[in-house]
Amino acid sequence: MDRRELLKGSAAAVASILSPVGAEAAVKSVATAGKVERWGVFELELNGPSHGNPFVDVTLTAHFTQEHRTVAVKGFYDGDGLYRVRFMPDAEGVWSYTTASSAAELNGKTGHFACAPASEGNRGPVTTANRFHFIYADGSPYSPFGTTTYSYLFATDTNAAVSLEGMRGYFNKSRVCVLPKPLGNNGPELLPFPRSGEGKDATNDYTHFNPAYFRLVEKRILELQGAGIEADCILFHPYDAWGYKAMPNGADDFYLRYVVARFAAYRNVWWSIANEYDLVKTKSMPDWDRYFRIVQAEDPYGHLRSIHHSQVIYDHSRPWCTHASLQSWDFEKSAARREAWNKPIVYDEIQYEGDVDRRWGNLAAEEMVRRFWLATVRGSYASHGEVFRAEETGPHAHEPSWSDAGRLRGDSAAKIRFLHEVIAKYARTGLNEFENSYYLSAGKEGELYLWYFDYHRPSRYDFPLPNTAIFEAVLLDPWERKETKLQGSFTGKSRVDLPGKPYQAILFRKTAEVKGKPTGQVAGPEVMD
Amino acid sequence: MDRRELLKGSAAAVASILSPVGAEAAVKSVATAGKVERWGVFELELNGPSHGNPFVDVTLTAHFTQEHRTVAVKGFYDGDGLYRVRFMPDAEGVWSYTTASSAAELNGKTGHFACAPASEGNRGPVTTANRFHFIYADGSPYSPFGTTTYSYLFATDTNAAVSLEGMRGYFNKSRVCVLPKPLGNNGPELLPFPRSGEGKDATNDYTHFNPAYFRLVEKRILELQGAGIEADCILFHPYDAWGYKAMPNGADDFYLRYVVARFAAYRNVWWSIANEYDLVKTKSMPDWDRYFRIVQAEDPYGHLRSIHHSQVIYDHSRPWCTHASLQSWDFEKSAARREAWNKPIVYDEIQYEGDVDRRWGNLAAEEMVRRFWLATVRGSYASHGEVFRAEETGPHAHEPSWSDAGRLRGDSAAKIRFLHEVIAKYARTGLNEFENSYYLSAGKEGELYLWYFDYHRPSRYDFPLPNTAIFEAVLLDPWERKETKLQGSFTGKSRVDLPGKPYQAILFRKTAEVKGKPTGQVAGPEVMD
């Protein structure tokens, strides 16, 4: 059977290819439904020992090989004597594998499978690119326009469906907690560790996991993936009712290894080591550093890694940290931060739209939208959040808030999508801040200029475009979501009449080079049209 | 003639009282029209030598005495052989005086006059009070709600009338330049120093003054006074077309002494040593300090003194500086500034409402109003400014902008007046910031609480009122200029439903003490009404 045929293979074909080969008879099933595609998941399910404590006692690794490359991937115990190894192939063609295990039943299993091209909408994992930006593995542009649904991964099916419906089409990343948060009547129904006793006397068994909890989380991660949403997986957080924020060091590390082994093959996973790490008073900075290094070492794919603070900003220059994930809205410091860290900056909490009594949770939609634009023209990214008071009566009574995986109730999401559309249309490789711009602006020198006027409303402005190219101009109204293409074309210092209201933007995009020598500053539409 | 009769005396009566007494025959007239009142002006006009250079050659001082007090007041030469001494009496009753001069004709003149009670609307000069606030000399409250009309003092009558009409009722202070600014077709018509030659070869004679220029300025100061507006007189500034920002040191000092001698008797004068002093590159910090000390030494009344910066904040802790006059809108630094300076803080430029292309000149009215509220709840004060592009056709073509003494065109002034009315009604002795308040608030502990929510919009909030008093509450809508008194009364932690829109405020005012021992936190209207 040649490689071409393998590439065409359906799931059934792949299974039949695998079944007759040597030790492959031991493979119970290939859990991946349908064909294995590039940046999809090949899952090896194996029967193994269930005595003792398999979570601790049994080691399992598979080596996946294609031509000159071999990738070592750790497996994990999923309960009931079942072991799994999940692998995300990043190249098409045939991959073969061999297992190594401390358990004889799991050791030396071999096989191969064909990796088909990525299907529509599968652009691979996101990684950093162009110093301060992001990109999908297939080279297509990715600009994070994220939100925050902390409890999504362990929400009830009903709440998760509502939450996902709210995210769909509006956001392409969400911050989600892997460990549960207390949710009152809304869950969680499952816990990650076996727990015994009641109330104050309850104890957690940190030597075992509850596979059902992690299967739920995985289901949710795949739901996000299906909606085109990166799962910014928060590994630790301070919102704890069970003691998980004060696990012993060994338990922390054990948990991290298990999580990475289970989730890393999902292409839409990002690792956020913690939310508000500095509020987890039981941990010290060396602990956080260690978590980073464990995640980095265990993850065969190098998914994005960051950590989110409350008051004390982590040193994002550390080599294991791929980008900054800040809680602040002091966007004016972005230039200094870029200088210090040389990495993309995501302002992952910029306060929430809402109406609760806490300062962080009651922005008007207008202010939320404004902050997205400010982040953008500072050459950085932002995440949305929302928290309205729970309704006390009616069909939505006592529903969780958006940030805990509830209904989207605010007005900013649609306006944020407008900005996302503008960026996707005009600025596919990311905007860099022009630090000496008189009004805030970002873009790419000589090619693209996006000005955002914030609370300023000049009735006209002489835009200092270069005279080496000819530009088209689009007025942007962030709140009305209106794009107005200006008549004519522009080069050099170009006077444009502006709408005379605050919070407006304008974008200039190069349409042509100026032929021959630059002729000095040529004013706008009158001459160039 | 007893004191009572003197107090009743009309101008004519006062003149007749003065005329028969000794050397008083030499007094040509008492220029003050009508009676001399407390914090009014008694003006002594004397004929003296006109040969040589009287500005330089002749010294003239009058000592005004009432009971145990004697105030030394310098006179000045007003041209045409006329010398004047202006005195602002701060106490009712009879004052006598004696002149001392290097010119025999002006020396040893004596007389007396009666000072009547201040008339309606005359509350005396403003001074600092209660550490961080201001007060009129008669003890009535004064909170600066200022504006900026730089060219008012030397504007044409037409423009000045338009400007004054705009200020009247809206503002109680204006920043005005004593030295001229270039105004294109709009003046100035007069200059303070004799000038000869043309264009680049023109030179100023800094040994003489042009009295007509200063008489115009005085007329304007009195117009402001008549409208209840403090004249925040800017003594130096960088907007110069004649060389005045680079006069020799001796000329600077000569000018300051002349100005103080001429203007100090006007109760509504404040001294602003400079506007954007740090943009006057010809001067060094010791120069600015010296100007302060000259003004302080020459002014018998201790009018308010400050200095206004562009980039480099002056050390307002210096003893000759009575309050801070800042160009910034970083109100969050007010607490640190109060700590450092222990003086009132006026944010005298917080950018301008308008539509010009410069960043400082195109705020929307909403943002200007927001900044006033922010300054207020930071326990400080702010000044308005406005600059719209000049109209090119029509009845208002080529008029100066508001800031150069033109027409008021923006929308913020009326909204600022609303805040002024709130402060005048509820917070007569000034608001101090509650630095640990969860939302921005200011007031007086146990008596008055003003919260401003800025971009926050909690739908309700538990206000942490003390339980030692009972309060009434008023919702304030800064933009709609609406005061809504809430039903009931409040004490202790008090839950109030809020309008759910940003930029709202609420004020609580004590109406009664709680009798007996505090009974703990008692919730709002339900129980107390």
How would the blueprint of this fold be written?
The structure is a homodimer of 529-residue chains.
Chain A: H1 3-8, H2 11-18, E1 27-30, E2 42-47, H3 54-57, E3 60-66, E4 69-77, E5 82-87, E6 93-101, E7 110-115, E8 126-129, E9 133-136, E10 141-142, E11 145-148, H4 157-167, E12 173-177, E13 195-196, E14 203-204, H5 211-226, E15 230-236, H6 249-263, E16 269-274, H7 285-298, E17 305-306, E18 324-327, H8 334-341, E19 345-349, E20 353-354, H9 365-377, E21 381-383, E22 386-387, H10 412-426, E23 432-433, E24 441-444, E25 448-452, E26 460-464, E27 469-477, E28 482-485, E29 493-497, E30 505-513, H11 525-528
Parallel strand pairs in A: 11-12, 11-21, 12-15, 15-16, 16-17, 18-19, 19-21, 20-22
Antiparallel strand pairs in A: 1-2, 2-5, 3-4, 3-6, 4-5, 6-7, 8-9, 9-10, 13-14, 23-24, 24-25, 25-30, 26-29, 27-28, 27-30
